[in-house]
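Task card 7
Instruction: Convert sequence to structure tokens.
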Amino acid sequence: MLFIITLILCGSMIVFGLCFRISPPKDINGVFGYRTRWSSLSQETWEYAHRFSGGYWLIMGCILLLLSVGYYLLTYYIPILAHGIVFIVWLQIIGMLLVIPLTEIALHKNFDSDGAKRM
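Output:
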């Protein structure tokens, strides 16, 4: 059961990563997308936040998927390690949530408080 949860978490990161990279929400809205005060400052910050967070989730989702499948295969041959899958789930949750501070840091670094690109 936990293995299925790990696949769902990784799959979600990969799907949203691809969506945000390929076809992010066009307009700033309050319903769907990476919505924070900084990402909503301007259209440019909105697009940047989606490109950044989408790329992060895509890469992190693929890395965690490989790690999860590898660990699952390892536990197939060494069953005593099966309890460690909970650690993998926590890694995935942390990896999924890290997108917020990393994207905010990137926005602060590249844009001023009015949403204009820094030189």
